[in-house]
Every structure is written in structure tokens, then in C-alpha cells.
Amino acid sequence: MSYGGKKSGPFSGQQIASNSSSNFPTFFIIKRVSTSDESFHSVSPFLVEKAITGSIGDVKSTKNLRSVDLLVEVQSRKQSEQIVKLKKISNIPITVSPHATLNSSKGVITCGELLNVPTEEILKELQGQGVSHVRRISIRRDGQLLNTKHLIFTFDSAKLPENIKAGYMRLSVRTYIPNPLRCFKCQRFGHSKTSCRGTLTCARCVEVGHESTDCTRTEKCVNCQGEHTSFSRNCIAWKREKEIISTKIKKQISYPEARQLVNSQTPTSGNSYVSVAKKSFSAPSVQKNPDASAVTCPKPSDSTAKASPPITNLPIPSSPSVAPVSEAELASPDFTDFQLVRNKKKAEKGFSN
């Protein structure tokens, strides 16, 4: 017998409404149309702001890009519809287009029930909830490409939803953090082989002029000079690059801003992450008062001294116990990668009895 209000089941998902109709582009690129390669650097910022405000009202932000274009973030659907119609800013010809990546977000869901469902079908069923692209994560095992139960969803909104409804199931959405992009030619991060201007470098020994396929020389990393391959995920340079990407996505800032933030938190030269962590986790000693030698206590009276025998051999209080932290734990591997689950639990197909 129930005395309270009826609660919805964990798979009801009735509270998750379709949000595709409420999504709209918020970031736009404004390019100056000029036959002589003129940019906004030669235009007064006061003039630009007044022209944008006079056309669509106060926007959330306007920034200069390294490409000499303007990045404008609007506040409402009305502004989003108005800004794409702009052809001029104070008699300056312009073109306006939605930003290629800032108006979308990527998340990861894990669902064993969708393991054998084609991604085309998943996309068709979830388009009403703002899903614009679906990609399944696969891994290579013993030369075979195997599908996993992890899916990467691209949403047509800069804000990632917390949940999504797939049939009768409500699935949690986690932020997708891609692995650092490494060039297969020069082994450096941040670009691909097709756009590389560097020299062919072995990913195993960092010698130039040969591939790493048949290399048997001593391992060395081109990015941190450590004694491992350039594709090792134990590389401190790889981990730092991963942290920069994670910071960029979670804080929704640019890559240079994220890199500056991460580098500002990096220990100075000569102090590794492990050594700094060791010091911070070492067992605390009993705090000593630097002025304790100057503190005097009143001398007890003779009667008190006679009545109370001197107390000696007091036990020294031990310091608080601190769980030891090993170097392996401090330098733990990246757990954001996905592994194939061999022993799958049986999924619940309905409500519990």
C-alpha cells in the first residue's frame, strides 16, 4: 500500500522533452568582404559595436579571431535569425555564417541494448531530441575491428543534455573528450599527416628518415624525450595535451586559453608531478610552535608539587594516519578511454517485480 505520490520509474523518461525545436545557433562568424584583403583591424571597435547593437540589439559577446574575423555570440533566437540576414556593418560589406563547431556539442552514452542496433536507425529515432550525428566507438583486438556499446552523439546545441531517451530507456550523457591529435609523420601534436610540414620521424626511436614499423632501436619520445615511444599514453606530453583538450571542452574556451591555463598549473622545471604530489601527500608531522620556547608557565606551589608526583614518559601523540600514495597511483593511466566489456551484465528488460 502506497501512502505517497506515485513516482516515475527509472526508465520512464517522461520528463525528457524533445529539445530540437528550442535549439538555435548562438555563435556566428562575421567576415569582411573586401577585394584588397581589408579586415576589421582597420575599423573602429566602437563603430562595429554600435552597428551590431543598432541592427540586432545587445549581444552576449564579440571577439576578434586570429583569422581577423569577428566571433559574435547572440542571446536569443530572434537575434540568431536577424544576424544571418546582415549584409553590411556601417556600409562595410560582410558575410555572416554560423560557427562550424561552437554551435554543437558531443557526448558519450553507454548502452548494451544498442550494441546491435545500426547507427542509422539510432540517429533516425533520436533526431527529435537534437541528435545530428551518431558514431560508434570500436576497438581493434587481434587484428579485428570490434564494436563496443559506447556511442558518440553530436547534438545541435552548445549545451550538452544530461540525459536522453532511447525507447523505454533513459541514458546518461557524458562529455566526450577526444584523444590528442598526433601527426603520423613528424609525431608532433596538433595536426595531421596530410597538413604536416615537418620531417618524417620514427615514432619509436625519433630518428628521421624512416618509419617505425620495422625499427628495433632504443625507444625514445620526440615530444618529451622520455624512454618510450612517441605514441605511448604514459607520455607526460600526451597527458598534458589531453588535459588541455579536456579543459577547453569543459570550460568552453579556446585552445590557446586552455593551454595557458594548464601550463600555469604545471609544476616548475625540476619539480615533477610525482615529486610534488609526494610532498603534498607525505605524513604530516606534529606541529611545532616557533615561539614555544618563549612561553612560560607559573611554577606550581610546594603543596601541589608534594601532592602530585611528577609525571614522566608521557606517550607522544602519533600523527594522523595518511593512506600511502604510490607513484603508480599518482601517475595513473588515462581512464577516459573506452575498453571492450567482455562480461556483459544482463540488461533489465522491464521494471523489477
What is the secondary structure topology, with strand pairs?
Elements: E1 27-32, H1 45-56, E2 61-64, E3 70-73, H2 77-83, E4 88-89, E5 92-98, E6 105-110, H3 119-126, E7 131-141, E8 144-155, E9 163-166, E10 169-172, E11 174-175, H4 236-251, H5 255-264, H6 273-281, H7 302-307, H8 327-330
Antiparallel strand pairs: 1-3, 1-5, 2-3, 4-5, 6-8, 6-11, 7-8, 9-10
Domain CCHC-type: 182-198, 201-217
Biased composition (Low complexity): 315-327
GO molecular function: double-stranded DNA binding; RNA binding; zinc ion binding
Account of the 3D structure:
This is CCHC-type domain-containing protein. The protein is an alpha+beta fold and 353 residues long. Among the domains are: 27-98, RRM (RNA recognition motif) domain (Alpha-Beta Plaits), CATH 3.30.70.330; 105-175; 180-266, no CATH class. 20% of the residues lie in helices and 18% in strands. It has 8 helices and 11 strands. Strands 2-3-1-5-4 form a 5-stranded antiparallel beta sheet. It has a 4-stranded antiparallel beta sheet with strand order 7-8-6-11, covered by helices on one side. A hairpin with a 5-residue loop joins strand 2 and strand 3. The radius of gyration is 30 Å and the shape is globular. Residues 1-18, 272-278, 280-297, 303-339 and 343-353 have low confidence and may be disordered.
Put simply, the count of helices is: 8
DSSP E strands, number: 11
Class from helix and strand fractions: alpha+beta
Work out the oligomeric state of the chains in this entry: single chain
- How much of the residues is beta strand, in percent? 15-25%
Query: Helix-strand pattern, N to C?
Result: EHEEHEEEHEEEEEHHHHH
The rounded Rg comes to 30 Å
Helix content: 10-25%
Runs in which pLDDT lies below 50 for 5 or more consecutive residues are 1-18, 272-278, 280-297, 303-339, 343-353
